[in-house]
Amino acid sequence: MGIRRYLNFDLLLEQVGDGRYRARVTEFPLDGTPRVQFQLPFDAQTLEILLLKLDPGRSGTRRVGATSHQQAAMDFGGPLFEAVFTGEVALAWQRSLDKVRAVDAEGLRLRLLLDDAPAIAGLPWELLYDARTNSFIAQSERTPVVRFLDLPHAPRPIAVDGPLRVLVVISSPIDLVELDVEAEWRRIRDALEPRVHAGLVAVDRLSSATVPSLGAWLRRHQTHVVHFVGHGDFDDRLREGVLYFQDEYGRGAQVTSSLLGPYLRDHDALRMVVLNACRSARSDGIDPFGGMAQGLVQQDATAVVAMQFPISDRAAVRFTGEFYGALVDGLPVDQAVSSARKSLMAEYSDEWSTPVLYMRSPDGNIFENLHAPESTDPPAALTATVHPTPPTLPAATAALGAAPVAPPSGAPSPNPATPNPSPPVAAATGADLPSPSAEPIDAPTERSGARRRLSGRRGVALAAIAVVLLVAGFLAWRHQTEAGHSTTIPSSFDGVWIGTGSDSYGSQAEFTARLGDGLSIGRLGGPSGCHQGPLHVSDATDNKLTTRFDPYGTEGCTNWTVVFTHDGEDLLMKVDPDSTENNQADFEIRLRPSP
Hints:
27% of the residues lie in helices and 26% in strands. By secondary structure, the chain is α/β, with parallel strands linked by helices.
């Protein structure tokens, strides 16, 4: 079956008392306003156990096994369906399905309006299970499940008249769990390669995962979809969902929908956001727009695809390829999501319900006239950069242009491996100097001759200064090189090192040091937030590596000086806390190469 035409079945859920709710059908193919009152069919403990089984990330594992997950999904979705789809609502649902067949429509879209029941809005409604037909409603393209936000000013489809343009933002801050950025990009590229080769999709990658870089890109390029890959969370203090972009030094920067929304809203061509970030669909049970996905829709995004559970890399890649493929085939966005869900059911049967669609389009048609360019030239390869990294210049050369900006006090030096370069500094040449005001050629004057002589002297003086500064910079560089000192990690320390010993509190603990050849920042992992964080290189030789450690934790934590030295095939890690508060003491641990 190709593109389907849907009728809507709008189900409004409202809280009417403590633990009591009302389900009201506000739009369907027949007349009337069917309604029922219901309560959740689970007590608090049973619900918590079911959600734990459905969300393997909460139990510290990626998966719990397809059979266990399938049973938990039915144990949750079956009773929930029976509680809501009962009485008048059940009759309206069945008659609507009959009506769809009678009028030759191809499907019935279930649009859930959850704004008035925030306490249950965060439940996995995509798992509604009809035991009579032994089927999950959301698994069929005939009955897609949409979380619908009925907002003013319904959006219109955009006439693309060309390929679908997707901007990929991959964020891996240095102070959070590391992502394999290049592997993530390669997976997305491979998933979309057939559509790119056909000219139906154009994919770009933002080289620097900062909000200013995103804003600069959107000012200069037409973009239909922003696809974010990275870390997400829900900040209980802010009561908002957050995405972790990066700051100018590569550290994590919390970005809420209220910050990101205006950048997306003001880009007229943008219609959709895809968030491959854990729990980017979560809300807090009080504010229905507190989640990242919900907030972006409120900020004018037509559709947002987010994740309500952790999703494995391979499942995310499979979903991405099938989803974008269905979109460029002309399917409505909700049908495209349902089609992509089915692609997960064979190999990733416990992850098909992880993607969630939030939408405010009345019919799911948000892109029109998607097609390959008319040019007969082969499509360009996937783009991987936005702002090229400038070549490294000697410090003395910078004196000829703008002075470099130093980081704020206490901030790490920018990581050479972090795609966050400063603007290139151009060396001054004679061609760069301003020309004197032109005089008539046939009327030379003494004044113009003086100007030419002065200009020539300035050029000679500037050239001499440039030579002196370049020579001084070269000599300083050679002295540092001959001394063998650097601020990047030497290859002799490259690798993952693991060891166990007494920490600063005198407790036995395991530490992991991740040191990358040529990088200026490593990572240290330990038993708590006070023992986890980035290692900023302050001095390095082939035999000794001195770093500054900034812990992730805040309360009761202090910065450390951490020194690594070689001892045969092992490393000795000596830690010197900068403060003696909280009984933190120096300690030393032997680290061995990770097997």
